[in-house]
Amino acid sequence: MDILLFGPPGAGKGTQAKLLTEELRAPQIATGDMMRAERQSGSELGKKFDEYMSAGKLVPDDLVIELIRKRLSQDDAKGGAIFDGFPRTVPQAEALDALLASMGRQIDRVIALDVPLSAIVERVVGRRVCLDCGQTYHVSYNPPPSDGVCVSCKGKNIVQRKDDTEEVVSTRFEQYEAMTQPVLAHYQARGIVKVIDGVGELEAVTARLREALGR
Ligand code: ADP
Ligand code: ADP
Ligand code: ZN
User: Fold this and answer.
1) pTM higher than 0.70 for the full model?
2) Which of 18, 144, 169, 215 has its CA 20 to 30 A from that of 138?
3) Which residues, listed in sequence order, are joined to residue 2 by a DSSP beta bridge?
4) Within 6 Å (CB) of ligand 1, which residues are found?
5) Looking at residues 89-114, what average pLDDT do you find?
C-alpha cells in the first residue's frame, strides 16, 4: 500500500508516519529527513540542499525527484511506502505517479492533516528532533527526556532544527500555500483524498488516521 501524508509544516506528518510504519509494514519516506542526513554527511549535494532549507524555500524538483527515484529502488520500499513531506509540488506528484506506475503501483490513499496556522507556529517552534534517528519531540506536548537521551535510539543528539524559527516558518508556510496546496487537487481529482482533523492528542489523531485508512 502506498500512502501519502499531506499537510503544512508542523502538521504532525512525521510523528504519525512513524507510528504507522510497523502496522502498514511499509517504510516512512521523508524527503526532509533524507536531505538533513545528506547535509550531515557534508557532501556537495547536502550543501546545495542547505541553501534552500535554511531559507525555508523548496529544494528544486529535479534534485528531489532524483532522491526519491533512488529511494524507491531500495528493497524495503518494494512493497509500498508512507510518503511524508513529498510530493510538495505538482511536478513532483506527476513524477511520483510515473515512478510508481513503472513499478505497477499507485498512491492508494492521501490523508491530509488539517491544522490551523496558529497551531502550526507553536508546534514548529517547540519541536525538537533527534539527529540520529529522526524521532520528534515537543517542548510542551511530548518533552524530550531530561537526560537528553533519545527514547528511540539512545543517542544524545536532540536538537532544535535551525529552520524551526518563527521567521523561517512563515516563509515555509507561504511556500506551502503557493506550491504544495495544489498537490491536493491533483489527488482529489482521483477521489483518494481524506481530510482529517490534525488537532488534539497524538493518539486521537492516530485513531482518526486509522479510521481514514479503513483499519
Ligand atoms: P511535520 O512532519 O508535519 O512537519 P511533526 O510530526 O514533526 O510535523 O510535528 C511537529 C511538532 O508538533 C513536533 O514537535 C511534534 O512533537 C508536535 N506534534 C505532532 N502532533 C501533535 C499533536 N497532535 N498535538 C500537539 N503536538 C503535536
Ligand atoms: P516540515 O514538514 O516540518 O516543513 P521537512 O523536514 O519536510 O519539514 O522539510 C524541511 C525542508 O526541506 C523544507 O523547508 C524544504 O526546504 C526541504 N524539503 C523537504 N522535502 C522537500 C520536497 N519534497 N521538495 C522540496 N523541498 C523539500
Ligand atoms: Zn533518536
Assistant:
1) yes
2) 215
3) 81
4) 7, 9-15, 123, 126-127, 136-138, 141-142, 200, 202, 205
5) 98
Q: Is the dihedral of CA 90, 43, 173, 8 positive or negative?
A: positive
139 & 182 share domain: no
Mean pLDDT of 19-43: 94
99 and 151 housed in the same domain: no
Mean pLDDT in residue range 204-211: 96
CATH value at residue 174: 3.40.50.300
Question: What is the span of the domain harbouring residue 154?
Answer: 127-163
Quick one: 151 and 172 in the same domain?
no
Cell of 193: 483524498
**Ligand 2 pocket, 93 CB below 6 A?**
no
- 144 CB near ligand 2 (under 6 Å): no
Selected catalytic residue, list 39, 48, 128, 161 = 161
What's the gap in Å between 101 CA and the centre of ligand 1? Answer: 31
Indicate the range of 10-14, 36-40, 71-75, 177-181 predicted with least confidence: 36-40
